[in-house]
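Thread: Newbie trying to understand structure tokens

Hi all, I'm a second-year student working on a class project, and my supervisor (Dr. K.) asked me to get a predicted structure for one chain before our next meeting. I've only ever worked with sequences, so writing a 3D structure as a token string is new to me. If someone could post the tokens and maybe explain what I'm looking at, I'd be very grateful. Here's the chain:
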Amino acid sequence: MNLGQDWNTILTLFGSTLTFYVQTWDEYYTRTLTLGIVSGPVEGILTLCIVYAVTAIKGGGSYWQQSMLQTFGIANHAFIPNYVYNLTYVEWYMVYGGIVLVSNTLQSALHVMQTRRKDSKDPITPLYGLLPYFATWALVPIYLYLQPIILHHHIIPFVFYMGLINAYAVGQIIIAHLTKNPEFPMYNVLTLPLALAVLDSLGPTYDIITTICDYLDIWCLTIKHPYNEKSEKKKAK
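---
Reply by user tm_fold:
Sure, no problem. This is what the structure looks like when written as tokens:
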């Protein structure tokens, strides 16, 4: 769909990984794998097949960058706001994905809470299991905002990294489910580099100082090359 190295790709990544995480979290607490009304393995795959087919027929991803309503032959009536009429296929895809994502997440949360009530257990405690995911993703926009070169030029390695974080988290939940571990995995060690990267990005002064010191071959608070009378005399000659 020619999303490019931009926020649309990050939003798509967020939606796909959240769905995977929430369904696995749901299964851990309910002991049953349930899929939403619009699920990734069914409707999600069908959506991708349609996108691939249309892209092949139309000859490229640029097709998705035009107004969807206009290509459907819908006239720009006065009651349709211009910004709505001019929404591209990509933007409508984001709207569609957002609605499905919110719906499925709420459905899974309600399913977990209902199951816990039937088992006479606390229905609120399982919701804390969503915090590791959202805590990790709270760092993502901060880091990419502070490091736009990553967002616009090196997004592919970052996407793979976020995929590894989610895969490891989901793997922990699956193992806890299979081993019947009563403790839900709340810690993901792969998130640590992202947190450190955010902290480093928030400290530009350090980067400026170290860059200048490296360039001038000096130290900041101490003398790297102390004065030596003999060597200075040799230089003078």
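A couple of things are worth pointing out once you decode it. The radius of gyration is 26 Å. The mean pLDDT is 87. Feel free to ask follow-ups in this thread.
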